[in-house]
């Protein structure tokens, strides 16, 4: 266990000040490395299976670019506002941090709402997770990302509550920073989903 | 669901197992109650976040699983001893080879290695605990409940029966109805999450918590192998996570990933499984190389020969381990070009491995060798592992593999690398570090009995299998006819298996005997060791090091001893030591995981959802938990250090 008392470093940003925080942030980066491997496997699975549509619809039959564009804009904007939140944290403005976190959270919730609508729409058209290998891999890949975003929303809510209770401490600052790493990562994953699943699917 | 479907019925062996499980559980409850040990169990073990105790729990679990997997093995050998045996029917035989393989790899070899690394790595790098002690407890308990979930399958619901590789379409709903393979998917998933967390935990620990002066190139070799193993875990286990998740979806929700219709692709499973599965082999063998390096160097009383070459070859092996997976299915339809590529990468692994073998041999050269039990295991490893390795290169030739594939030649090969590599290493490490865990030495005389019985038994058991394979005996066949001429070698193999079983019993007796009569280790350094773990007392104090040592060279403790001072603790320099608090939450969250998994296995989704709610509740409570741990006072450190004789 890190000797927290003796490694307090005033020169660092608040989230990096204690040894425990530095360890946790590094650990989270490594965890994101594992997440890269996880999503890479899901993408590989999708790319192997996406033309294996059986009797079900193909990508071109299915995707509607409008909903997907709205989702994309919501999520990319939320990544920007999440960056603003950390920026406000560095300036030690609690209100600004809370406001931008809340905006991020709402944009994330908007993304999830549209994604769920999209999924329901597909299911109504008879394209379910059981229809074909393509649809199984589509729902699991995009759904895993959506589950990550949903988890992020819950996590961020907990951190907002802790910020309201405790204000800026090395620990709350570290939590904000780590959840922001997570959020940006999900944004990156979405860019790959948007390109490799939706855009490729519309063209091919 | 009827009770007769819930419990496995119809086999006398299973009823005997039912009775023994119930009796064991009653026995445990009785002993804990009679000796008033419940509180002790909770405070000292179930809630602990101490890496040493977690390591001990890993090793106890691994030995239990070695027993279970070993019984499976003996049942298989009993069935195969003579032609046309009626001891096990084909279905039961399928179940037993499936659980044997899965348990031995995932619930025996991995936890044994992870247990040793839990105990040793923080001590070797001069740290007081791992980076995330709480997470470490979660890792252990997730592994443990995963193992328990897998182990109850054979009495509740039915064992998985599609082989430890669980290839589709065999493992799909169509050919494997029933819950057996659900157990496989869910139990491995739960313990796999724990393993991934361990990988992250130890990578950060090794990168960030080394004692001052310990550069990467001054790390003990065991720590080096663990560092690389963690990287393998971090990139390999997510693939297993996904593969198992897709399997779960296919089995529980009728998706089409690996099915025969609607576009599904069963080969995708084989690829995903082995993209994890091959690095997995190196996850259990690299730490073993590390253990042998420590033991050989200590008992040859020489610095490890070719330290840098050792490091580079581990890194090389780790890299290559990700690009050889197709060699597990050369015969399953890949073209000549693909097979050639994977054939060459596979053979290339022999090069860094060979470098390591020569390094061990040169470490021995002109060493003043002491033949302790740990050293015997390490010395026996070298020739036995080379037999396994060379036959591995034979299998690596894709064209020739069409002859060897799925025969007993393959069985012999991978038992020669996994037993002579990993199991020998686990036994060597157990004997070597036992004083650090319990404060006494495992009896050497009994240890050598175990060694000779097990090592000779191992060769008698598996060497004939190379020939059985060449004579055409294929793996996973549950019986054979007398005219094939396989009987004599099968009898020999079964005799060897029995000897290994006896060796295991002697080992268990040794653990009991040594606890009662074993030589206590008063010095903390019974083997005249070279690395920092021997600078601590035996058993190690809760906080490991009263003062963090300064490292000036490789073999840090050896250099301290050579300079005539040893590792001295200046009482003036003592400061209060910060330690993390115990927590019961990892245990309780893992129990919730068990029920969530159980619910998924039987498609009792209400149970699964309720358990999931408890898991999330546990995570929320953790998020709001601001327990900062506690400090051990200087007075208490002084008292402890004087008691163990390490203090001034």
Give the largest interface pair and sizes.
A-B, 44 and 51 residues
Question: What is the chains' assembly state?
Answer: heterodimer
Helical fraction of chain A: over 70%
If helices are DSSP runs of H or I spanning 4 or more residues, what is the number of helices of chain A? 6
Q: What would you call the structural class of chain A?
A: mainly alpha
Number of strands of chain B: 2
Mean pLDDT of chain B: 94
End-to-end Cα distance of chain A, whole Å, is: 53 Å
Hey, roughly how much beta strand do the residues of chain B contain? under 5%
Distance between the termini of chain B: 68 Å
Can you summarize the main beta sheet of chain A? none
Which descriptor suits the 3D outline of chain B?
globular
Order of helices and strands of chain A: HHHHHH
Q: Find the count of extended strands of chain A (DSSP E, 2+ residues).
A: 0
Low-confidence stretches of chain B: none
Tell me the structural class of chain B.
mainly alpha
Q: Overview of this structure, please?
A:
The complex is a heterodimer of chains A (204) and B (648). Chain A is mostly helical. Chain A has helices spanning 19-49, 59-62, 65-90, 94-124, 133-166, 170-203. Chain A is elongated. Chain B has a two-stranded antiparallel sheet. The model of chain B has no long low-confidence stretch (mean pLDDT 94). At the A-B interface, helix 1 and helix 5 of A face helix 7, helix 8, helix 9, strand 1 and helix 19 of B.
Identify the notable features of this structure and list them briefly.
heterodimer, A: 204 residues, mainly alpha, 78% helix, disordered N terminus, B: 648 residues, two-stranded antiparallel sheet, 20 helices, 2 strands, 1% strand
Detail the topology: elements first, then pairings.
The complex is a heterodimer of chains A (204) and B (648).
Chain A: H1 19-49, H2 59-62, H3 65-90, H4 94-124, H5 133-166, H6 170-203
Chain B: H1 3-6, H2 12-34, H3 38-46, H4 51-80, H5 90-124, H6 133-152, H7 180-208, H8 221-253, H9 266-299, H10 307-320, H11 336-364, H12 373-396, H13 398-404, H14 408-438, H15 444-470, H16 487-517, H17 556-562, E1 577-579, H18 585-601, H19 605-624, E2 630-632, H20 634-644
Antiparallel strand pairs in B: 1-2
């Amino acid at each position: 266990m890190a000797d927290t008392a003796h490694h307090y470093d005033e020169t660092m940003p608040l989230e990096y000040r204690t040894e425990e925080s530095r360890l946790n942030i590094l650990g989270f980066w490594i965890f994101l490395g594992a997440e890269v491997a996880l999503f890479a496997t899901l993408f590989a699975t999708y790319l192997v299976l996406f033309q294996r549509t059986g009797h079900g619809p193909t990508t071109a039959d299915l995707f509607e670019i409008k909903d997907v564009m709205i989702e994309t804009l919501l999520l990319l904007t939320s990544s920007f506002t999440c960056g603003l939140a950390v920026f406000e944290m560095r300036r030690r403005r609690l209100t600004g941090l809370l406001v931008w976190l809340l905006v991020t959270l709402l944009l994330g919730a908007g993304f999830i709402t549209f994604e769920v609508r999209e999924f329901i729409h597909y299911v109504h058209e008879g394209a379910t997770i059981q229809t074909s290998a393509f649809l199984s891999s589509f729902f699991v890949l995009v759904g895993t990302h959506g589950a990550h975003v949903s988890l992020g929303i819950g996590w961020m809510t907990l951190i907002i509550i802790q910020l309201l209770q405790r204000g800026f401490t090395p620990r709350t600052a570290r939590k904000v920073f780590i959840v922001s790493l997570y959020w940006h990562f999900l944004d990156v994953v979405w860019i790959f989903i948007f390109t490799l699943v939706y855009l490729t699917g519309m063209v091919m | 669901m009827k009770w007769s479907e819930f419990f496995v019925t119809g086999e006398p062996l299973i009823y005997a197992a039912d009775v023994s499980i119930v009796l064991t559980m009653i026995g445990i409850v009785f002993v804990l109650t009679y000796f008033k040990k419940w509180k002790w169990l909770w405070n000292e073990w179930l809630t602990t976040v101490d890496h040493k105790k977690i390591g001990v729990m890993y090793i106890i679990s691994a030995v239990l699983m070695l027993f279970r997997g070993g019984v499976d093995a003996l049942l298989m050998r009993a069935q195969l001893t003579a032609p046309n045996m009626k001891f096990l029917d084909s279905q039961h035989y399928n179940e037993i080879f499936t659980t044997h393989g899965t348990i031995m790899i995932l619930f025996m070899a991995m936890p044994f290695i992870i247990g040793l690394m839990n105990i040793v790595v923080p001590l070797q790098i001069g740290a007081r605990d791992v980076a995330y002690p709480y997470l470490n407890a979660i890792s252990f308990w997730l592994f443990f409940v995963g193992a328990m979930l897998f182990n109850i399958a054979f009495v509740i619901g039915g064992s998985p029966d599609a082989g430890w590789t669980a290839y589709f379409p065999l493992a799909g709903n169509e050919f494997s109805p029933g819950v057996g393979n659900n157990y496989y998917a869910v139990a491995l998933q739960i313990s796999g999450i724990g393993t991934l967390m361990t990988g992250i935990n130890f990578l950060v620990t090794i990168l960030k918590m080394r004692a001052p002066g310990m550069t990467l190139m001054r790390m003990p070799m065991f720590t080096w192998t663990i560092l690389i193993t963690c990287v393998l875990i971090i990139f390999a286990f997510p693939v297993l996570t996904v593969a198992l998740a897709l399997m779960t979806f296919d089995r529980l929700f009728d998706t089409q990933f690996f099915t025969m219709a609607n576009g599904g692709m069963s080969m995708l499973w084989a690829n995903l499984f082995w993209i994890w599965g091959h690095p997995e082999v190196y996850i259990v063998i690299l730490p073993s190389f590390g253990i042998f390096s420590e033991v050989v160097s200590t008992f040859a009383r020489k610095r490890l020969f070719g330290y840098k070459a050792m490091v580079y070859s581990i890194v090389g092996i780790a890299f290559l381990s990700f690009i050889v997976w197709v060699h597990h299915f050369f015969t399953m339809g890949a073209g000549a070009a693909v097979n050639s590529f994977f054939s060459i990468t596979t053979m290339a692994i022999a090069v860094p491995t060979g470098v390591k073998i020569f390094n061990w041999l040169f470490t021995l050269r002109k060493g003043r060798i002491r033949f302790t039990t740990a050293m015997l295991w390490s010395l026996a490893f070298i020739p036995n592992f080379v037999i396994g390795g060379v036959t591995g290169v034979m299998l690596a030739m894709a064209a020739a593999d069409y002859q060897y594939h799925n025969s007993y030649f393959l069985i012999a090969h991978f038992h020669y690398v996994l037993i002579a590599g990993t199991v020998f290493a686990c036994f060597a490490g157990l004997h070597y570090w036992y004083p650090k865990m319990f404060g006494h030495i495992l009896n050497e005389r009994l240890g050598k009995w175990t060694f000779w019985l097990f090592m000779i038994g191992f060769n008698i058991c598996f060497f004939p299998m190379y020939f059985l394979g060449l004579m055409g005996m294929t793996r996973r066949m549950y019986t054979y006819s007398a005219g094939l001429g396989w009987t004599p070698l099968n009898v020999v193999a079964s005799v060897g298996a029995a000897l290994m079983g006896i060796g295991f019993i002697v080992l268990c007796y040794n653990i009991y005997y040594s606890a009662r009569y074993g030589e206590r280790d008063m010095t903390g350094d019974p083997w005249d060791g070279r690395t920092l773990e021997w600078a601590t007392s035996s058993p190690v104090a809760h906080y490991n090091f009263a003062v963090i040592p300064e490292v000036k060279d490789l073999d840090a403790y050896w250099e301290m001893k050579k300079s005539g001072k040893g590792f001295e603790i200046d009482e003036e320099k003592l400061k209060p030591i910060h330690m993390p608090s115990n927590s019961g939450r990892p245990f309780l969250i893992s129990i919730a995981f068990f029920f969530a998994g159980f619910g998924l296995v039987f498609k009792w989704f209400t149970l699964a959802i309720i358990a999931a709610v408890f898991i999330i509740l546990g995570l929320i409570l953790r998020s709001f938990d601001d327990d900062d741990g506690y400090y051990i006072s200087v007075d208490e450190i002084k008292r402890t250090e004087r008691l163990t004789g390490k203090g001034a």
